[in-house]
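Feature request, filed as a ticket because there's no other form

It would be nice if the structure record came with a short human-readable summary line next to the tokens. Right now we just get the raw output. Example of a typical job, pasted below so the devs can see what we mean:
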Amino acid sequence: MIDFRPFYQQIATSRLSDWLDTLPLQLKQWEKQTHGDYAKWVKTIEHLPNLSATLNLSNKVESISTQPLSVGETQRLVHHLKQLMPWRKGPYHLHGIHIDCEWRSDFKWDRVLPHLSPLKDRIILDVGCGSGYHMWRMVGEGAKMVVGIDPTELFLCQFEAVRKLLNNDRRANLIPLGIEQMQPLHAFDTVFSMGVLYHRKSPLDHLSQLKNQLVKGGELVLETLVIDGDVNDVLVPADRYAKMKNVYFIPSVPALINWLEKVGFKNIRCVDEAVTTLDEQRKTEWLENESLIDFLDPQDHSKTLEGYPAPKRAVIIANS
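Raw output as currently delivered:
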């Protein structure tokens, strides 16, 4: 099983130390109810070789072997990594292997990065971090410590596999919990919530939970689905949105800003809006499932299959 003790040691002497009051017991409970394939996925990580590499995290997530792998070694590495499919957020370039994930998460990062306060020496929380692609890009920007939280066991195992192939780098850590399980720490300089809000049944509670993790004056980076409209416009899908059952509220940008004001955020500004393209989200050999093309009206890509506006995303930055 994955050992979280090194993380406990890391945070024991940091401003996250209060988390140790609850986190170890929560993770013990979590281990008792993991997914049926979790043990198999952990075995896959154990089978990955320990390889020495130089890292490039500033403009991609890349490990470059100090000694090139043989054809057989590369094939074995690809085989192990494909045991952890589907790979959704990426891409990763690991020892000559290109994991071409469903999402070109570097597109989103390139849209977000120019608007951020410098991440150098910051302690960062990434909520709903998936397999951790953006966490490694935050490390590449000089973050002191990046903590991702995501309750999905496969994402944890993908993260640990990537970490092992990045020289077991400990500047980023993934904790398999949801934000609602975190005590208010008021300890992070920057909190990211990207692609999470529309999955929450109570979006204002989610925004309050994000605020409770920030230091006073800290920065929230919120990226979510939006619709066009005024302060009163919010889409509440009747059943599914783009084939997803767990989409509850999609606000307009003015409505979203209003929500942030209601929970006490300041200096709120929308810095980017972008329609999701078929270049950014698509099917690859690392994903056997459907992707964006399957969720859109085949006759009109400006609409989902259900007739709602096609996915459009906004980036909002605010301060606590």
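Something like this underneath would help us a lot:
Residues 153-165 form the longest helix (13 residues).
The chain has one domain: 26-319.
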